[in-house]
Design a protein that fits this description.
heterodimer, A: 1113 residues, alpha+beta, 7-stranded antiparallel sheet, 34% helix, B: 175 residues, mainly beta, two-stranded antiparallel sheet, 3 helices
Chain lengths: 1113, 175
């Protein structure tokens, strides 16, 4: 569409007037809907009205500064899109300008005017394979060849629809650009891969057929209740999408013991992508600790992705042990049910009193952290001959000039000579530079001194137990200055201990002084001080900013224990059977709890109002564990200091246990357990089962293990469960929730993906967190071959989310990126209005092109309300007569014209393809009676009413079953009968009736309460509950549940029907309703959706339901 | 070369219509000088080859058919400089604080270009306003737009000023 140089002025006119996006021109010989170039800056516009000599043009770009008398040039062609390979995986604006290329061309984030780029890359080559032979007859839209466009989609090259066809005379195969001829016809026509089509004209097809195949979405509520046909139209009110993760400062434990905030982990692993703003899902390679539900172990596992997004509310869960988890409401945590089954439960569904699975013992396999003097103490001086001499020798022997080497190392020649002649001791950084310069290995350094004077100090080779203990002492009760390391403590034994450690580790003497009335022992050594500083001991404000050194966190267990010992000796106290450490530093408290987790010691943590954090350990078992871990005496389990001995002594003499380490066992399960073994057998082992069955107490870990032993040969099912849980106990424990709070407000949240177990050990105190990934479900759902997503007048930030998100999503069918079968069209709310009007046409023309190839295409338009508003604006500028609410009178006609381009077609070339249109409407103020919604509802045959109430109740997908409808049910029934089950429509009708009845009953329940209802109606409520929980709800973040094939949809429904039928039979036979609803098998219905191999599972449930209910009468 | 017209044909509310013989661009800025020497500014709402419709910013009072109209040849542009900080400006960007004239570093049209959605970043930096009802329950994020919905008699400008005064981005402060 280049600017014409032809002197023929026929196609060049002159601007007459300008008013916003509407421009009139005179003397322009253009046809309706021709694209014109307006003004000197060549803005793109379209002819929308011709009256005499005056042509009215709507301009797709900002018209400021455009003046009358500037030229208007027609391109002689209507607004067209470029069709050909290269459209998938592309992002366009409303007139098919590729945004990615525009950004490069304009070299900036803003869209300049008058810049254009072809919709498909004209110079990229594609591999073309002909499908026709010379001599064959081809007609319009016949497929002449194939191009593998993306991993997922083969692009079919067709004869243009407006061609007359003819006999093929020549075909070529190989690599071609889209403009090169690949097939020649005897009519002289040359066929290229590239073709154009005017957007406002429907591409021709042989015949529109009644759609009879459902667009399977894998969502039970849609496929089961409100199916849409391939080629159908549907409307959804409101926007889509929501998120679920943890907050940025949540620490995560890596498999080498390192503790990182998830934000830092994200930044580390996401690399360049971390700099991107907005939602990011990046591939990542790292290992962290995860809880394996199958085996009940905490083990290392690789992660595949890290994620960052934002949320509007969080749930803060506080547990009895003081763990606080802040997660998004949909984030799942592991709940230990009363029936001894671990269940993944969304945080929003948790209740106070539920027990969460928490790590007891995190076992990491690591070795001691080494101390590299070159890195940590670069300015300390080398003293050992073994370090200095080889260098002096090398300098003597080298062939290079000493001056040059001195310069390369970065010291003056005089100083350099002093070093190499042994007059002064060289600093380590000089040694290192010199070695690098002379290509020598760095000599091992064991001793250094602070300056040319000063006493030599030993540098420990690594952070071993002694070093860790010293660090613990310093961090608890010590402080650093530039020249000294002080340890303040009134206990002479501890000061001596500190002095001994200093002497052993560094070979330095210590001095006793008094600072601020506290007796102090101090190491006067700049080297030691800077070494500790380099290992992370803060010089100021230690009490608030102190943290467990990295070297200790990623050290082996004895080092961890030694640090805790030092810290406890310095700052810990023991009284009334409770060992306690208090710190004002949250990071320190977090670190300490992780260390305790490494040692398998259970603790509680309290955050006090004054900002301090109190970590306590109590109960005989845990104190014994603590004392054993901290013991440093010659015999195992004996501590040398009286503070340690006190714990050991208490632990040995008491059997008092706390209620920290209990196993949540429901009374019913306990009865089962009790029935599984004889009462006497428990009594023999000293267990009073009545405590647990009648008095509501919960067994301690020890008691629970005994239970396991006793019933091992009793009821096998219960024994297995008990056994499974007992097996977990070495790695995890169960922590009851004491408080749940909802925190509102937009926040950035993070997540990591752990393939397999889907969780990781993290949190401010070690906890097991579940993770998930946001998905644009709608696009992911459909079994369409191609997805065209039109973002029409959406807010820029939301569009960014889509643009960031889509390339990251994986196609559940092929495993390729979802983008490889997707085309995005974006016109954000601040982009020119006229282009918004055209963007839905651009989208549907692209959709029709793929339809012609025989593909099933799903087009999502979000949102058609913004599109209608664009029409309203243009219409007002044209001074047209306004219709309802100012929308043009032709609103309904345009809407139906657009939706009518959807359909199931027999194409001209004999293939069949479909375009399904799913339009979002976002009526202002949620008012469904406004014209756009009303006109849309009149056209579409399927309406999925998103319901914010349901979303708040965490019922997902939150499609309201009472308000939604689908008129495709009848025409799709034959498909379901044939491909799924004979009685599918009948079962569906039953589900609809039951849900309707439930809605009516709920109104009564609101007034009089559930118990006032007759038993049969109570049963309806119960069955409806299963319909909602086991069937309609679907977990988009569960690998299995995210996609549910129609057979499974049917079978779950049928299983609930079985419950319904059996239950009503039993009720008729006089069985009380409580007994019926209490059967064990029924709750298992809600688990079906997580089962990949569902058939046998459902068979089993159906049998158990029948058997258990029939056993009641 | 600026032409001055005395061709006003119609004045109606804030709108002034003038005949022209040289074309003027849409959205351009116009100066109208009243017989008393007052200068009013306006913007072109509709430009045709023989007349223009001008929207006058400061009111049409005092403008008559013998007023003169000058077309400045550019769209409304704002003079930009760091020194604008601390100044008080009128709605058309002129200083009204009795201070010195603004010496601009550059001029930019007030109608900005649309942003390429592909180039956008997703907003995620928390703005701390120090107003707990906002920070706690309705958090502001940098790059978002949030209107204050007010009703008559409510001190929305006080709140807006308070937010403007106190807002910080902790993420940025932290490094």
């Amino acid at each position: 569409m280049s600017k014409t140089t032809d002197p023929d002025v026929q196609n060049e006119g002159v601007i007459e007037s300008v008013s916003g996006p509407v421009v009139t021109a005179t003397d322009l010989d253009a046809q309706m809907n021709d694209v014109v170039r307006v003004g000197d800056s060549e803005l793109m516009g379209e002819v929308i009205e011709i009256e005499g000599n005056v042509t009215t043009i709507q301009v797709y770009e900002e018209t400021s500064g455009i003046a009358p008398a500037e030229p208007v040039v027609t391109t002689g062609a209507p607004l067209s899109v470029d069709l050909g390979p290269g459209m998938l995986d592309a992002i366009y604006d409303g007139v098919q300008r590729p945004l990615r290329e525009l950004q490069e061309q304009m070299d900036g984030a803003f869209l300049d005017r008058g810049v254009d780029a072809p919709g498909i890359e004209m110079d990229r080559t594609w591999e073309f394979t002909p499908e026709v032979e010379p001599g064959e007859e081809v007609g319009p839209t016949d497929i002449v060849g194939i191009v593998p466009e993306t991993q997922s989609i083969d692009h079919k090259v067709m004869v243009p629809p407006d061609s007359e066809g003819g006999t093929v005379t020549d075909t070529r195969s190989g690599e071609f650009t889209v403009q090169e001829t690949v097939v020649e016809l005897d009519t002289g026509e040359e066929i290229q891969m590239h073709q154009e089509w005017p957007v406002r004209t429907q591409r021709p097809a042989e015949e529109k057929e009644t759609p009879t195949t459902p667009l399977i979405s894998g969502q039970r509520v849609l496929d089961g209740l409100f199916p849409i046909a391939k080629g159908g139209t549907a409307a959804i009110p409101g926007p889509f999408g929501s998120g679920k993760c943890v907050t940025p400062d949540t620490p995560v434990m890596l498999s080498d013991g390192e503790l990182v905030e998830i934000e830092a982990l994200f930044e580390r692993l996401a690399g360049e992508r971390a700099a991107e703003d907005g939602e990011v899902l990046a591939e990542a390679d790292a290992e962290l600790m995860t809880f394996d539900e199958e085996t009940g172990d905490i083990r290392p596992a690789p992660i595949s992705h890290v994620y960052r997004g934002s949320t509007e509310r969080l749930v803060r869960v506080t547990t009895a042990s003081g763990r606080e988890l802040e997660v998004t409401p949909a984030h799942k945590l592991f709940r230990m049910g009363g029936d001894l089954q671990v269940e993944e439960t969304p945080a929003a569904d948790l209740d106070v009193g539920d027990s969460l699975v928490m790590p007891r013992h995190v076992d990491v396999d690591v070795s001691q952290t080494t101390v590299d003097p070159y890195e940590l103490l670069p300015s300390a001086r080398a003293v050992e001959d073994s370090v200095v001499e080889p260098i002096q020798a090398a300098v003597e022997e080298m062939s290079r000039s000493k001056k040059a080497v001195a310069e390369a190392v970065g010291v003056s020649y005089d100083v350099f000579m002093n070093y190499t002649l042994g007059r002064t001791n060289p600093p380590l950084w000089v040694v290192e530079e010199l070695c690098a310069e002379l290509d020598l290995d760095r000599p091992a350094v064991e001793r250094v001194k602070p300056g040319s004077n000063g006493k030599p100090v030993t540098v420990p080779a690594g952070v071993d137990e002694r070093f860790a203990e010293l660090l613990g002492l310093v961090l608890s009760d010590g402080m650093l200055t530039e020249r000294t390391v002080r340890f303040h403590n009134t206990d002479p034994a501890l000061r001596e201990r500190f002095a001994d450690l200093a002497a052993e580790l560094f070979g330095v003497d210590t001095a006793e002084t008094v600072h601020n009335t506290v007796e102090t022992v101090e190491i006067r050594s700049t080297v030691v001080s800077s070494l500790l500083a380099a290992l992370g001991v803060p010089e100021t404000n230690k009490s608030v900013t102190g943290a467990v050194s990295e070297a200790v966190l990623s050290g082996p267990d004895p080092v961890v224990a030694a640090f805790l010992r030092g810290y406890y000796l310095g700052d810990g106290s023991f009284s009334g059977g409770t060992a306690e450490i208090t710190t004002a530093s949250e990071e320190m408290a977090t670190g300490l709890t992780y260390l305790l987790g490494r040692l398998g010691v259970l603790f509680r943590i309290r955050h006090r109002e004054d900002g301090s954090h109190r970590v306590t350990i109590s109960g005989a078992d845990e104190l014994a564990g603590l004392s054993e871990a901290l013991a440093d005496g010659p015999e195992p389990g004996v501590g040398t200091h009286e503070k340690l001995a006190a714990i050991a002594e208490y632990a040995a003499t008491t059997d008092g246990n706390t209620n920290v380490d209990t196993v949540p066992v429901g009374a019913e399960t306990m009865v089962e357990i009790a029935e599984a073994a004889r009462y006497a057998e428990f009594a023999d082992e000293g267990l009073e089962t009545h405590n647990y069955t009648g008095l509501g107490e919960q067994p301690s870990r020890e008691a629970f293990e005994t239970i396991g032993d006793v019933i091992a040969d009793g009821g096998q099912a219960v024994a297995d469960r008990v056994d499974h849980v007992a097996g977990m106990l070495s790695d995890v424990f169960f922590d009851p929730i004491v408080d749940i709070e909802l925190v509102e407000g937009e926040q950035t949240v993070y997540d990591v993906t752990v393939p397999g177990t889907q969780n990781f050990v993290g949190g401010h105190v070690p906890s097991v967190l579940h993770n998930t990934v946001t998905q644009h479900q709608l696009a992911k759902w459909a079994d369409a071959d191609i997805v065209v997503y039109v973002g029409c007048g959406e807010r820029g930030n939301e569009m960014t989310e889509v643009i960031d998100d889509f390339p990251e999503l994986e196609d559940p069918v092929t495993g390729h990126p979802l983008m490889s079968r997707t085309c995005l069209i974006a016109n954000t709310s601040n982009m020119p209005v006229a282009a918004r009007e055209s963007c839905v046409y651009t989208g549907i023309t692209i959709a029709e092109y793929f339809r012609d190839m025989g593909y099933d295409v799903a087009l999502m338009a979000d949102s058609t309300s913004r599109w209608a508003e664009a029409m309203r604006e243009i219409s007002a500028r044209l001074e047209e007569m306004p219709g309802e609410e100012g929308y043009p009178a032709y609103l309904a006609a345009r809407l139906s014209e657009f939706y009518e381009r959807a359909g199931y077609f027999r194409n001209t070339n004999g293939t069949t393809g479909s375009v399904s249109v799913i339009g979002a409407v976002s009526p202002p103020g949620g008012d469904f009676s406004e014209p756009v919604t009303q006109n849309t509802l009149r056209i579409v045959k399927c309406f999925w009413a998103l319901d914010s109430d349901l979303a708040e109740r965490r019922h997902f997908p939150s499609i309201n079953w009472n308000e939604s409808y689908s008129l495709y049910r009848d025409q799709l029934d034959p498909y379901f009968e044939e491909n799924v089950a004979e009685d599918f429509p009948e079962q569906r009708q039953w589900a609809i009736d039951t849900l309707d009845e439930e809605a009516e009953l709920q109104e009564i329940v609101q007034l009089v309460g559930k118990d006032a209802l007759p038993e049969d109606q109570q049963l309806v409520l119960e069955v409806a509950r299963y319909l909602k929980e086991a069937w309609l709800q679907q977990d988009a973040f569960d690998d299995t549940d995210t996609y549910c094939d129609p057979e499974k949809t049917y079978r779950i429904l049928k299983a609930i029907r079985t419950l319904n039928d059996e239950a009503f039979d039993a009720l008729d036979a006089g069985v009380p309703i409580d007994e019926i609803t209490d059967i064990d098998a029924a709750p298992r219905l809600t688990r079906i959706r997580y089962e990949a191999e569902y058939n046998s599972y459902i068979d089993d449930i159906e049998e158990s339901i029948a058997a258990q209910i029939q056993a009641l009468y | 070369m600026q032409k001055e017209y005395r061709t006003i044909t119609e004045i109606s509310g804030p709108l002034v219509f003038a005949e022209i013989d040289d074309p003027v661009g849409y959205d351009e800025i116009v100066e109208i000088e009243t017989p008393s020497g007052d200068i009013r500014r306006g913007q072109i709402l509709e430009a045709t080859s023989d007349f223009v419709a001008i929207q006058v910013f400061e009111g049409t009072e005092g403008i008559g058919r013998n007023s003169s109209v000058r077309f400045l040849g550019n769209t409304l542009q704002m003079e930009l400089t760091e020194n604008l900080l601390g100044r008080v400006l009128s709605g058309s960007g002129d200083p009204i604080d009795d201070g010195p004239e603004v010496e601009e570093d550059k001029k930019e049209p007030i109608v900005g270009a649309a942003m390429n959605p592909y180039a956008r970043e997703y907003p995620s930096e928390f703005i701390r306003t120090g107003v707990s009802a906002i920070d706690g329950m309705n958090t502001l994020i940098r790059g978002q737009k949030l209107p204050l919905f007010s009703a008559s008699g409510l001190p929305h400008n006080e709140l807006a000023l308070q937010i403007a005064r106190q807002a910080t981005v902790p993420e940025e402060d932290g490094g």
